[in-house]
Amino acid sequence: MSPLLLGRVPLVCNMGLNRQQIAPLIVKYLRHTISEEEMSELEAWLKANEQNKRLLASFEQDGYSDKEIAFVEHLNVDAAWKRVSARKGRKERRISLIKWTTSFAALIALIFGLKLWFVLPKSPPSSPSIVFHGEDILPGSKKAELILSDGTKLDLTKPVHTKERNGTRIHDEGGNLNYLNSPAAGTELIFNTLNVPKTGTYQLTLPDGTKVWLNAMSTLKFPVQFLSTERLVYLEGEAYFEVAEDPSKPFVVDVRNTKVSVLGTTFNINAYTANTAATLISGAVKVSHKDVEELLRPGQEAKVEADKISVRTADLNKVVAWKQGDFYFDKDNIVEIMQELQRWYDFDVTYSGEIPKKLISGNISRGSKLSEVLEMLNFVSNDSTRFEVNDRTVSVLFPEK
Q: What is the mean pLDDT of residues 161-167?
């Protein structure tokens, strides 16, 4: 699970050290586990800029515990320095908006995070940034509904062990639905449908071994046995696919008359809006819409809009964040952000004041409470976006000009 990412400003770093290198060195230094060679690298970084020295000194002076030091493992040094500099002459308090398990894989995948310093003015603000009337809203969880070929609906928040009429065995393993064909399954084409509601996510392993992760408000219709010359499934919403390789049977995703065809690869499809976006992580895919076709290379995204397909380089961190358990905003407007949050927390939203053109970048775990996410959004908007929550209605308040 990855950290809160407040900004992606350039790191104050010379002597060849990059973002992935300096944070682990700081962590090892604070934990007294740094080697002589690593200490030499850290000293070179400290000598490169006086601000670097002050930043490290601020961590030492604050007397962090091991738990707190974990935050530094995802440190954005430039953004942190700006917060440290702002302390002078002001009362400050530290607020941890989110807890996460640290890993260097997450560090590299999602760049860097920043432990928050909320710098409060000497006198309290005229109104709080976030007001809750009622209880906080908890994040979503693994939940889905499975519809069998005879119309039977199964609640997948409970253990499921059943069979289809052709003998295909279906069982759920705590959020992962699996299919196993019977040797005597026959030749009848039987479909099941997996519906994931708001506040839900679910994983599915198809009979061919293909793994599918479905995001909230998504539906996948699929055969319980692949019998034709292609493995065809139908998608609404968003899903991440790891396709089992089978050269004799291409895997095809049909989403609103757009087809994504592969042999064995990893890709994401987002079709929440009128436009469909297919992003290739690895392998190769062909995106087809009416008479137009485009072949994608890894790291590319095809966007289908108004019967046209445009191809561009994708931000893979942003694309796969939901599957890894994160919200990842990168120059998104507040309306787009709130739409994504609505799918995960299930609330209504209203806006008061003129919606700013300023775009927001930030990252936080999908396991956070809504209040924590709103704190992050308020922070990265420089306190210009405030929120009032009444039960399950969120009012987004912008300052009047």
A: 92
Based on its alpha-carbon atoms, the radius of gyration of the chain, rounded to whole angstroms, reads 24
Would you place residue 151 in the very low, low, confident or very high pLDDT band (cuts 50, 70, 90)?
very high
Our measurement of the distance from residue 278's CA atom to the centroid of its chain's CA atoms, rounded to an integer in Å, reads 16
Taking the C-alpha atoms of residue 223 and residue 173, their distance in angstroms, rounded to an integer, is: 20
How many C-beta neighbours within 10 Å does residue 311 have?
Answer: 16
Distance CA 361, CA 334 (A): 10
Highest mean pLDDT among 25-34, 100-109, 338-347: 338-347
Task: Give me the amino acid identity at 38.
Answer: E
pLDDT for 184 beyond 70: yes
- Residues 6 or more apart from 277 whose CB is under 8 A from it? 269, 270, 271, 301, 302, 303, 304
Evaluate the CA torsion angle 340, 342, 344, 345 in order and state its sign: positive
Quick one: tokens of 224?
A: 């319980």
Q: What are the chain's domains?
A: 19-119 (no CATH), 141-320 (2.60.120.1440), 325-397 (3.55.50.30)
- The tens digit of pLDDT for each residue in 231-247 reads 999 999 999 999 999 98
pLDDT at residue 67 tops 60 = no
Gap between the Cα atoms of 238 and 339, Å rounded? 14
Strand, coil or helix: 210: coil
Cβ 48 vs Cβ 13: under 8 Å: yes
Report the sign of the C-alpha dihedral through residues 71, 77, 82, 84, in that order: positive
Q: What is the DSSP string of 322-336?
A: TTTTEEEEEEE-HHH
Task: For the chain, count helices (H), then strands (E).
Answer: 9, 27
Average pLDDT over residues 69-94: 42
| CA 189 to each of CA 25, 225, 258, 356, 379: distance values in angstroms, whole numbers, following the listed order | 57, 7, 22, 52, 53
